[in-house]
Amino acid sequence: MAKGLTADELRTEPQDVLVTKLKEAKEELFNLRFQAATGQLESHGRLRTVKREIARIYTVMNERELGIVSVTEEDAAEGDDD
Question: Which end of the chain, N or C, is surrounded by fewer C-beta atoms within 10 Å?
Fold first, then answer.
């Protein structure tokens, strides 16, 4: 999983890619928690980063579900910048 995912980057992704990234982030969080419990975790900051990535993905998914932002609106806004 890429470090430093931003909400803007996530908003341009299709729904199926978001679901995949969410699944990967949850698996990584599970592994990090397991390492922390067994004393093998070296970077505790990564736990915080992964939790925030998961929250960002859920936020973008909820925005789409509520109709606040859709993929087509974002694509149209990018076309106006050119």
Answer: C
